[in-house]
Amino acid sequence: MPGSLLWATDVYGRAFVLHTTGGCWERAKDAQLELKRVTAAEQCCWAVGSDHRVYVHVLPRDTPMRHQEVTYENQRWNPIDGFTDTLLPTDRWQWTDELGQNSQPLHSFHLPSENWEWEGDWYVDDESCGRESSATGGWEYAVDFPTTFSKEKKWNSCVRRRRWLRNRKYKAWGCWAKVPLGKGRPTPEHFSDISCGGWEMSDSPKKPISVWAVSQQGKVWFRTDVKQQNPEGSVWELVPAPQEVTQIDAGPGHLLWAVVWDGRLLVRTGINKDCPKGSSWILVDPPNKAGAIHIAVGVNVVWAITKDSKVWFRRGVNSHSSAGLGWISVGGELVMITVGPNDQVWGIGCEDRSIYFRHGVTPTEVTGKAWAAVCAPLAPTNRPSGISLFSGELTAPSQGSVLGCDDSDGGAPHLPKIASENFISTLVADRPARPEGTQEGQQPAGPFPETPVAPSSQSRGAERQWSNVDLEEIKGSSAVQSSAAVFPIEQGSIEVQEELPPWAWITGGGCEIDSNMHITWLEPPDTEFMSPSDSARDDRGYVAEDDSHEGTVSVRKGVMCWWRDWKPRRWEEVGVTLEQVRGGGAEPDDILYIFYTHNEQRKYLYAVIKEVTAVVPMPRDSMCALAIYTPERTKQRWPVLLATHSQQDLEDWLSLLSESCQESRAPRGAPSKRALWAVTSKGDVMVHEPSSSLEAPTQYLPCDQMFWRQVPGHLLCVESNSLGVVWGISYEHAAWVYTGGCTGGEAQGDEINEHTLTDIKNIYIYENQRWNPVTGYTDKGLPMDRHMWSDAHGHRECTKENTKPPSPLWTWVSDWAVDYSTPGGTDKEGWQYAADFPATFHGYKTMKDFVRRRRWIRKCKITLAGAWQKVPPISLMDVTILPCLAHSSLEQVPVWAISEKGDVLCRLGVNTQNPAGSSWLHVGTDQPFKSISIGGGHQVWAIARDGAVFYRGSVSVQNPAGECWYHIPCPPKQVLRQVSVGRTSVYAVDGNNNLWYRQGLTPSYPQGSAWELISNNVCKVSVGPLDQVWIIADKVPGYPAESSGTVCHRVGVQPMHPKGSSWDFGIGGGWVHLSVRGNSTEAQRAAAPSPLPSRNQEQVNGNMAAC
């Protein structure tokens, strides 16, 4: 990056530049000019001098800087004289601009300042009409003003015009040139601060630049028409501000921040390429009570310094949010700070007045890692021999000088802290000569002003010796004048290396540094980074970095598709940024931003990761999508849907967001024994770590605030208990047991717990046909019919060619084939018949059946790595585990299951050390079953495939398989399909999604007496060891558009009120299974007496407290 310069000024007002390819600070020209503030762009640098005027320094370059003045000569035709300068009263002026709105005669054009010169005289633009001037004279013709002009003269051409040009060239290269105030405008007050930016807002080759300034009265001014070809601009325009401003800073883009007199901050909004001055101000509170004193702005970053010299970073600043969201403390103590074009950061130390660079700033680590001193000396100066290095008289320092010597200092100059808003106001008032009272071996603390030096009066022929100087004599003398040592040298030239001066101001706007660049002056000789603070210093005056209280901000950016939930409902490409804050002694505080455009306005959404309750993959519209839930969006049934362009991107973002959520919520590692397990419709396994308030009778934790995290795996259902035994069933009906391995957080257990988990899923599509009298059943349907190849409901077209696996993680393992096991039966060709679409289909044809369909099946397979171990060889349909209390101690954990054929099985040898058990024990039945559940007292309930309900008697620890089945009547006219048994409660769900509660359960009559309807709209129920009741609801009342499957909690369940009172709806939309049978965490409350008398374990229901 040639021409990349770092500009700085010292406390004497001298300007220096440091090149990225150089190694030394070089003194800028115009040594007599004293500067207070500097601000730089790529090719220019602006400054405020000690006279409070604005100066500009344009770097030399190969291409001259020219500006072209343009005016148009207009004429009208009349029958006598032809085309003349005599125009009608309603016509434009003879000399105007292109639109004819302003009068622009040739003599009205003047040079804007003495920094410009004319290049020749006015001339006609011969090419404006496309012909040589000899043929056309540069004229363009038209019927009248204003209209479209053309190069051809026609019979009705009554007016004509031609363009005149004159070029002026900028001549003040490589020096400081005073910027004119602007003629015809009110003269601004004296300036105290200046900043430039905005060159990245426009893609125009002219590169317009926004120059802002602050006057001594606290007013904000904007310089118009500043660009690379016109660095001076035109005029100063006042921009009203709500309060008096002390300092201002503009970034390369749209950002503009200012500091007001009381330490608060102002943010300018509405800045864009069409409105560079912006539209309004936003008042922002300072980082702390001390108030801000300095602000620095980059492309998407804002840094601040408070009056106690602390450094702060503003989080949440971006192209859609200029004000940001909050402050992060960053280590170090600085007096001022500046940000470069690519957000690199420099600062000046508060105590040593040295320049520091923020090491480690990258597009992802926006706050960097540590402060490193800029190791660049001053460029050596050549002095002729015969001239003493130091000559003259030592005078007492003036009161206004910053180089005054403190008598108690031993000759070292004392540099007071200088506030950033007025740190140079007295530096130029009186500048004395440098005292020579430095001890032997001690280097001066700063450079000396360039003053004329006198030749030495000593003889040149004799050998010269060093003179001894009595510092105590000099220091203690009360006379104004005192002798000073003279050090003569031999004839010739000598290089003098001066020590770095105390710096006052620095600007990085013209210094573009990439994190991969090799820059010598940014590499300290040792490997330890330094920090400008008040801690113990090393021999160079630097301080080792102490980041124990320092926060760092890292960002991850990407482009994703976002589902807009309001009209027009569609996917839109948006920018996504995850901002992560670490360190500083605080908890992780991450924020996810989504930037979008609505009605040509830049807007954004954000979600605090601490408030995110779930990040769930949700393939939608054949896209790799994920859903982000928060409590508020769960209540609104409106999760944030984001989609990536590839499966790998989706996995990366899922991993990043899940890790961020876990770090913010602190549940890391394997799920606890009391975790709630759930499964989504896509097979993703989710867990929630319960708290004691989850089942509290009052002030319970709402379901929408439950945090769910994903566990690697793909299952159809999961069951658990409080001893940590977890079983799952996959889509291919294979049994899996959880081994407690890593779940994306800290390692829990050995790597051998990680196994390869596979699952096979069936993909179905339907072939539809309609009958007609001529050809019979064909694939030619009516216009209002469903697609001839569709899904089960006929809503989407699903052909063999366009039907893909659920996600790229799945692969096909079979070809398409007719499915003869379609529910409802089929004929020998796999067809089902009905009167019309949609209707109930059956497996035989009748005279009234005019449509038919058949289901095609294809298998796909997924392979994952997770802490699941397969339990061969029997395929299962349902599984249940004894829901015991947390303090229970069982040698063998009862596990019951139903095989794919409908057989009832009891697993033997299951314990916490061997959750998979050893073998299956077949329990005889007279018909196939489909659902089974065991309660806390070893009571086993099951449902047959025909809907009949059974209770297994005499099940106990000594007799784990029980003795016989007792038939339980079903609810009237209902067929049950799922049952769940808790400590003392039994709930069941029928085929119409109604939830039933079994009344009259007693130890003497464990079968109960009757069924009571509790609720409808229930897909599945899970009853825990505390008789807590949770369900998967079909729909949420009032939100019919939401997909089926919502987690719900029964509120008000107590020992004396086991049926509860109402439902609390939680996360939803695609959840199919829930197990709370491991949550035995009781709320802290007075123990309620059990409604059942205590019994021995040998009895049917067992001893509840001993489970």
Explain what you see:
Residues about 385-490, about 535-550, about 740-750 and about 1085-1105 have low confidence and may be disordered. The protein has four helices and 69 strands. A hairpin with a 6-residue loop joins strand 36 (about 615) and strand 37 (about 625-630). The strands form 15 sheets. A seven-stranded antiparallel β-sheet has the order 22-23-24-25-26-27-28, with no helix packed on it. The chain has a seven-stranded antiparallel β-sheet with strand order 35-34-33-32-38-37-36. By secondary structure, it is mainly beta.
User: Which percent range fits the helix content?
Assistant: under 10%
Distance between the termini: 74 Å
Nearest-angstrom radius of gyration? 42 Å
Strand content: 35-45%
> What's the β-strand tally?
69
Structural class category: mainly beta
Side by side, the strands of the main sheet go 22-23-24-25-26-27-28
- Inertia-based shape: elongated
Mean pLDDT: 82
- Major pleated sheet: 7 strands, antiparallel
Distinct helical segment count: 4
Q: Unreliable runs, pLDDT <50, ≥5 residues?
A: 385-491, 534-549, 741-752, 1085-1107
Biased composition (Polar residues): 454-466, 1093-1107
GO cellular component, one term: bounding membrane of organelle
InterPro entries: Beta-propeller_rpt_TECPR, Peroxin/Ferlin, RCC1/BLIP-II, TECPR1-like_DysF, Tectonin_beta-prop
Region (Disordered): 432-466, 1082-1107
